[in-house]
Amino acid sequence: MRRRFCLLLFCLFLPAAAPVERWRVVAVPDGDTLELEDGRRVRLAGIEAAKPPRNADPGDGRRWPLAEAATAALAELALGRVVTPRGEAGPDRHGRPMAQLTREDGVWLQAEMLARGHARVHTRPDARGFAREMLAAEETARAQGRGLWRTRVYAVRGTDPAALARDRDSFQIVEGRVLRVSKTGGEAYLDFGEDWRTDTTVHIPRAVMRDFGKAGIDPLSYEGRRIRVRGWIGLRSGPMIDITHPEQIERLEGGPTAASATPPPRSASPAPEAGPDDEDESE
């Protein structure tokens, strides 16, 4: 009796398990946003779908085929379905919650949008779960030239500083061989050219260096290696990408990379490719 009584007390004081949230999707405003039955809007964390240019006038009657294809694909995947958030992510700049989302049958929405070529991986320090799996899905779509990867607007950039300067203040994916890595003041700089004052550079701030250490990555290991880096292009002693989390850098010739080790949700079977090209389209 005493054992049963103790067991009962133990069960009573156990913390209640958090209920699994389930959201019904009633509208799809664009290729990475869902509107829920309760009126909230939620962003798909870790990806950026094709969208019209920021300065596009919705009243001018112009069509943006890649953005329309992304919206249609997400509607096909999610409209009227029940989705479940996985993990936690902070709000986006518009205050909308962000989450990794799976359907009631286990299909992972982010992986589907990436694999079909309707989106790019765009992680953030507070929304970086499943980075490795998302990057693999993106790589497959890019290799097969699906959707937005058929256009020059979304093409992977080289490290030529003059060309990258034209992409100032935009999110881009850049590939090149790191000529030199230098550490100073607890920060690291990855240089792609001989003259850091004019050439393309990747900057890893001191606070982010700690995250690289936790991921088991020494930035010095990038020297002489080809890498793929994604981020916003700034101009500061030549084109520069400031790193906010390790998942922004992929080492293309083996070696350690930062990524989630959690098994990914299941994705659905391959779907038809996205709509026609539109070389003027940008995010």
Walkthrough of the structure:
This protein has 283 residues and is α+β, with helices and mostly antiparallel strands. 21% of the residues lie in helices and 25% in strands. It has helices spanning 2-12, 65-78, 109-115, 131-143, 161-165, 206-214, and strands at residues 23-30, 33-36, 41-44, 47-49, 82-86, 98-103, 119-121, 171-177, 180-184, 187-191, 201-204, 226-235, 239-242, 249-251. Strands 8, 9, 10, 11, 12, 13 and 14 form a 7-stranded mixed beta sheet that branches. The chain has a 5-stranded mixed barrel with strand order 1-2-3-6-5. A two-stranded antiparallel sheet has the order 4-7. β2 and β3 (41-44) form a beta hairpin. α3 runs parallel beside α4 (131-143). It is globular and about 55 Å long. The termini are far apart. The model is unreliable at 2-18, 259-263 and 269-283 (pLDDT under 50).
Estimate the global geometry from the Cα principal axes.
globular
Portion of residues in helices?
A: 10-25%
Major β-sheet annotation: 7 strands, mixed
The chain-level mean pLDDT equals: 85
Determine the structural class based on helices, strands and strand pairing. alpha+beta
What's the tally of helices? 6
Radius of gyration: 21 Å
How large is the share of residues in beta strands? 25-35%
Question: Which segments are poorly predicted (pLDDT under 50) over 5 or more consecutive residues?
Answer: 2-18, 259-263, 269-283
The strand count comes to: 14
Q: H/E element string?
A: HEEEEHEEHEHHEEEEHEEE
State the end-to-end CA separation.
67 Å
